[in-house]
Amino acid sequence: MRSNRKKLDLSRDFLLYGLSFLLLMEWLLPLPYVADTGYIHIFVLCTAVFFFITFLQLPVGLSALMKVAVVFYGLFLVFFQGQFFSFEWVGAILEDVALNISYMLGGSWHALTDLFRSLLFFVLLAIMSYLLFYWIVYARRMLFFLIFTVIYVAIIDTFTAYDATFSIVRTFFIGFLLLGLVTMYRFIEQERLHAASTMLPVRLSGVLITILVLGGVFGFLFPKPEPQWADPVPYVRAAVGLESGNDPVQRIGYGDFDEQLGGGFVDDHTIVFYAAVTEEHYWRGETKDLYTGRGWETTTPERMKNPLYRTEREGAISVEQLSTEIAFEGEESRFDHIFYPGDFVELTSHDTIDVVVDQYSERANTFREEEAIALTRYRYDYVYPSFHVDVLQATNEEDPNDIVDYYTQLPDTLPDRVRELAEEIAEDEDNRYDQAKAIEAYFRLSDFVYETEDVPIPSSGQDYVDQFLFETRRGYCDNFSTSMVVMLRTLDIPARWVKGFTQGTEVEQLSQDRSVYEVTNSNAHSWVEVYFPEVGWVPFEPTQGFANMYDFLEVDEEESETNGEDPLDVTSEEEELEEEEQEEEPEIEEEEEQTQDLGATSRNWTIPGGPWILVGLLLLAVIVMVMKRKSVVFYILLKRYEKATKKEAFVPAYEHLLWLLRYNGYHRQSGETIRAYARRMDDQFVTDEMEAMTEEYERILYSEKSEHSSWLEQKARWLAFVKKMNS
Predict the structure, then answer these.
(1) What is the pTM of this model?
(2) Tens-digit pLDDT profile for residues 118-149
(3) Strands (DSSP E) found in 267-328
(4) Which of 10, 130, 165, 409 suits 507 as a labelling partner, its CA being 20 to 30 A distant?
(5) Is the distance from CB of 561 to CB of 555 less than 8 angstroms?
(6) Cα 421 to the chain's mean position, in Å?
(7) Would you list the domain boundaries of the chain?
(8) Residue numbers of the chain with a pLDDT score lower than 50
(9) 707 with 651: CB under 8 angstroms?
């Protein structure tokens, strides 16, 4: 029977099929913004393997078996941990599939599990790999898929937080390039322009790329009018009920709701304010005291005070009085309290505005005649403390009762293993400062991962900190800071949770060593403060990729000896510097990899066994490409039989020639004799070598003629016919 499988031109069809894969990626990348879908990198990698398997054009059974294996491996990476070759997880998947089939038969579609939904999604991606192969390689059609991709990206950009600015550019460039190439190759094949120059597709592709690039450049440079119509999004969202506030996708930003932590965040570069300062600082908003097992609440009484800031204390605290000016970007980004570093001193820009600071939460509220007011622009003085490590290590006074009451609280449901872990980390330390530093370093030196998208929400009854410490070990600042506060409290060390912004990005340099920093929603951050009786609240930074903005001053041995202190009682400067270097090296590496953009998710694209899988796929690709590359096959056969001198070489050479004809798509028709087939091949290639070799082959088979001189007589014909096939 005649094979229906299309012979591939590897370089041409691989390029077209690869471009269609890139276009499909524009459907996958926005999924975290429209659904509770994580592990996008796993779906992308598995889709790439599906495309690769489809392109190899293996037998249907083998191709399906390989894709099933990829689906199961993808489910293992997403839902299971432990050894891959234990295969216990395979039984769990099969049980889950059987359970969900019963749900479907019973009409309980809402009860389908996440694992089964992911299985269906993997199957859909495998089907898409075949459909795109058919559209691109067989039908040479692409317009339908391109139109729907553009519509999909536009809708996602309009109605979600996904920024499709670059996505739509990629879609148009890849889509129109693919559409042009597909149309060009379809025309060449339909018009049978095989005699045309082999450089024709390259030249036409170059022209197409040039047109796209020039069109993009001119489109970017030309002036563009402002929108002429009102934004329809608010009306549409209200009409379909999307303004209920139950959007499952959260945005990075400073908000008031911290009662339920967990879940991924969407990047948001909306500018909140600009700040002119002489040094980089964190911007405090407020602190919270009550940990519920799910998040943070404020239970401290409202006890307002006039600004009370720390002053210089010889040998204990060094302070520097500074000033800053804050300017908010828009009406929606203003707050009725002030963001400030260090300790707030006084407002210097508004005579009619009163600033009162809550004694417990440190929230600096702004009032005009006892009415809360949100300022657009303000200037104030503040003091920025530096802490002496020897004083923090030597503190031994008792904590005030209200500090103990509010800042050592823990829920009764906190699992015991959280306390046991904290005790294990701090067991070698004999003072509060070193215990806090040990817990802070634990998050940096262990296998915790900074992650903003694939962060699960604790299930009902599950503790937020316990889940992070012992199950997921991945998260963002809220996970790290909350866990450190809770672990400190298990050691009876007063600690509180602080929220605000990181320093932002420097955008302009001013005179007098001042710089302007741009602070966006992506700079929203939380950190930890620990109470020291003789000093007050001291900040710590446990989050991967972030460094503490405060200075911790060491006491060198010469100074301590001069002051009559025992040098053995104070940690030497060299030892402290070594400890700081050991702790800060991972911080620097993390900062280089992640930057301070909280929305730039640190996606871990490594998978278990990844190197071996990659090597196997590359090896399989090389083997298949060699087998499918006609020029390579011709070269191997020609070299083999050009040097052949054995008298018995004719029969295997002729049978290899029959195989080569089938390999190139010239199959014997049903009922066709070998001699009729040979005459048809001679007509195809305008020669008479094939029929002459066939007569010799039949004489050897049916008349028992010796092969003694056959190869010497037929070798020239065989080589000439093969070369004509390859021309």
Answers:
(1) 0.49
(2) 899 999 999 999 999 998 888 888 888 999 99
(3) 271-277, 283-288, 290-291, 296-297, 304-305, 317-328
(4) 165
(5) no
(6) 30
(7) 10-165, 272-594, 630-726
(8) 1-4, 242-249, 557-605
(9) yes
